[in-house]
Write a structure and sequence with these properties.
Shape: globular
Distance between the termini: 16 Å
Number of strands: 15
Structural class: alpha/beta
Strand content: 15-25%
Number of helices: 7
Strand order of the largest sheet: 2-1-3-4-5-6-7-8-9-10-12-14-15
């Protein structure tokens, strides 16, 4: 059952149109056409792709293909490995979503300080950026509010000191954040000056608190995964939430508060050790459009 958050995410990542995959490091996905770089370059005008996944295939690979991306006006969503940065040519102005993946050439990773987005590489129309940095740099792939001024959606890991969150604060148009390794950071206070409407959080350390969640007064969609401490759902009662998605959170308290959220349309409670009484479940089913309850 696709939820509101995931539907919005897919609309950025997989817009209508032809979808191309270049590189053997990714398995062919249903609906995609797999090509070599040369085949793509020769057929780009014919294909008119809306989505391209481009992953480097071998060490020392040149980046000439990126100049063709700047001329591919149909391109709206791009998944690209760090190997192709920095850019010699800016992407098409129609590009809305960029997903960055890790280096495949480890030598390039070791020289990473050379691979940053300069102030001249401003992508003024990109609204979606995703980079779950498995190399542990926690630097958002070098992007900044200056280079991505229109950013509305961000997905990333959060570092221990919170430098990543300091950068995120600067994206003044941000409305959606999918944050992993939130640790004990008070993300609600840090993001309170942004118009955050959708928030997905994972990777909690002991001591993470939800006491300040009301500072996100415009929050409409909340997704939580893996919070192992007591979670008082009464803290959500005064928010104008449309969707609540709670996964692997075994200590939910005051679940009756969900019935007090008049704006709520969709509720998902998965693998949470049955914190909802029959009365609450039936009340939710009577009121909401989508009720997905599976305690397992």
């Amino acid at each position: 059952m696709m939820d509101y958050f995931e539907k919005s995410r897919v609309s950025y990542l997989l817009p209508k149109g032809k979808k191309i995959l270049i590189g053997d490091n990714l398995p062919l996905r249903k609906g995609f056409i797999q090509l070599t770089k040369e085949q793509f370059i020769n057929r780009v005008d014919e294909l008119d792709p809306s989505v391209l996944w481009l992953v480097a295939e071998n060490e020392g690979e040149n980046c000439t293909i990126t100049k063709f991306l700047s001329q591919t006006l149909s391109l709206k969503s791009l998944k690209i490995s760090n190997d192709y940065l920095p850019l010699n040519d800016l992407f098409s102005s129609n590009l809305k979503a960029i997903s960055l993946v890790n280096f495949t050439d480890r030598n390039l990773l070791e020289r990473y300080e050379e691979f940053t987005w300069s102030s001249g590489q401003i992508l003024s129309n990109v609204e979606f950026f995703s980079f779950f940095d498995l190399d542990g740099r926690y630097d958002l792939g070098g992007i900044s509010p200056t280079t991505f001024p229109a950013l509305k959606w961000i997905e990333c890991f959060i570092d221990k000191k919170g430098k990543t969150l300091d950068t995120i604060q600067g994206f003044s148009n941000l409305t959606t954040a999918y944050l992993q390794y939130v640790r004990k950071h008070d993300v609600f206070s840090i993001l309170q000056d942004l118009d955050i409407k959708m928030l997905k959080l994972e990777g909690f350390d002991r001591g993470f608190s939800f006491q300040t969640i009301n500072k996100l007064s415009n929050l409409e969609v909340l997704h939580l995964n893996g919070y192992r401490e007591n979670l008082d759902l009464g803290l959500l009662a005064n928010l104008q939430l449309k969707e609540v998605y709670i996964l692997n959170c075994p200590k939910l308290e005051h679940s009756e508060a969900l019935l007090q959220i008049p704006s709520l349309e969709s509720i998902h409670v998965i693998n949470c050790k049955k914190p909802l009484s029959e009365e609450v479940v039936n009340g939710l089913k009577d009121r909401l459009q989508v009720v997905n309850i599976d305690f397992q």
